[in-house]
Amino acid sequence: MTPRADIDVRPVGETEFADWNRALNTGFLREPHSSDEVLEARRKAFAACRLVGAFDSGRCVATFRSFAQELTAVGGRAVPADAVSSVTVSATHRRRGLLSRMMRQDLAAAKERGDVVATLISAEYPIYGRYGFGPATTTTEWTIDVPRSGLDARWAGPQDGGRVDFLDPEEVRKLGPELHDRLRRIRPGVVDRDELWWQQDTGVLRIHGAWQEPFYAVYRSASGEVEGMVSYKIEDHWGDAKQPQNTVRVRWLVAVTPAAERALWRYLCSIDWVVTVKSGGRAPDDLLPLFLPDARAAAITTQADWLWVRILDVVRALEARTYEAAGSLVLEVTDRGGLTGGRYRLEASEDGTGSCTPTDASAELSLEIGELASLWLGDESAVRLAAAGRVREERAGAARQADALLRTSRRPWCPDVF
Ligand SMILES: CC(=O)SCCNC(=O)CCNC(=O)[C@H](O)C(C)(C)COP(=O)(O)OP(=O)(O)OC[C@H]1O[C@@H](n2cnc3c(N)ncnc32)[C@H](O)[C@@H]1OP(=O)(O)O
To answer: In the UniProt entry, which residues are flagged as the active site (predicted)?
Structure first.
C-alpha cells in the first residue's frame, strides 16, 4: 500500500500524551486505556524522552520513543547512544511505511546530535535490519534443576569471609546504582540505569500498575564491599505428596567479582523449598553452569538475539573500543541509510587502542553496517558471517584477521530490557 502523506508524524504535545499512551497500549495488545495512576507514572518516566506519534485525523495511530543512553563498548568506555523503544503501529495502519518514517527521522536526528550508535531490543528478528541495526549481544537463560546439581545441601553461606544479606527496596536504591556503575566499567554491552530505572524496579514508579515486591539480596566481600546483588521472585508450588517445588525466577543479578557471582548463584540454589532456579537473561558464556558440580543440571531454555545496535559513526565507534591484538584491516562498509558508509582503515596498536580513518586503499572485507554492529561488541565472528554469505572477503584471510582484531575473550552482555 502507498504511504499516506496526510498522516502526520511529529513530536507528541503535552496534551496528546494520553492519546499516545492509548496507541502504545493498543500496539502492544494491552488494554487500551491506562488508569490515571499509570498515566501519571508514565508521564514522569518518559519526561526526558523524545516522544513521536503518527496522527490520522487527530487520532494517534503509531508511537515511537527514544532517549539518551550510554552503552559500554569493549574496553569499558561508554558511548552516547540513542535508545529506541515503545515502537508501535496500530493494526489498522500497518505496512504503510509509518515505522520507516519514524525511524528514519529519529536516526537522522541522532546522527545530527552526535550519538555514536542507536540501540533497541527487538520484538521480532526481521524488523530492524533494514534500518542498519544488527544483533550485537545474545541472551541465554538457564533453568537449573537444583536437586541434580550436585551442590552440597548443607551449605550455610559463603566460605570466603563474604556474606549474603537481604535488602529492602530503599537500600537497593541506595546501593544499587554504584554497584551497577562498576559493572558498566567492566562489561561491554551494559547500558546505564538512571534513577527512574531504580524507582521502577523497586516499586516507587509503577508504569505497569500493580507491583509486587520481589526479594533482593546483596553479597558483601570479607572487607564489607558490595560486590553483587540479585533480585528474584518465587513461584510457589507444592506437589501432591506435600513436597515443596518452588521456583526462583531471577529478575536480575549483577556481580563485579567472580566471588560475588558464585556466592549469589550458590545462595539461590540453597533456598529451602526451591527445586528450580530460572536464571533470567545472561551472557551465553556466563559462569553459572561451571559453578555446578553437574553442569548439565543447568539446561539452556532460551538463546536469542538481544541488544540490537545501529552504528551511526563508524570512526567514533571503532575508536571508542579497545582491541586484544594489534593489526590493521580495510573495511568497505555499506550503509543503505546513508549515515556512515565508506571505506575505512582500522589500525589496532599493541597498547589496545584503535584508530580508524577513511582510506582509498583496497578493501579487504566488505560488509553492511548491521554486520559491523554484530562484530563491534565482539559477540559475532566474521569467519562465521563470511561462511553464511553475510560479509565478503576481498582478500583471503581477511575474516580471520577481523576476528583476531574484533573478537573478545568474554562475550558482551546487556542485562536490561528497555
Ligand atoms: C524497539 C521496540 O519497541 S520493538 C517493538 C516493535 N513493535 C511491535 O512488534 C508491535 C506490533 N507491531 C507493530 O506495531 C508494527 O507492525 C511494526 C512497528 C513492527 C511495523 O510497523 P509498520 O508501520 O507496519 O512498518 P512499515 O510499514 O514501516 O514497514 C517497513 C518494512 O518493514 C517490514 N516489516 C514491518 N514489520 C515487520 C515484521 N513484524 N516482520 C517482518 N517485516 C516487517 C515491512 O514489510 C516493510 O518492508 P519493506 O521495507 O521491504 O517494504
So the answer is: 128 (proton donor), 418 (proton acceptor)
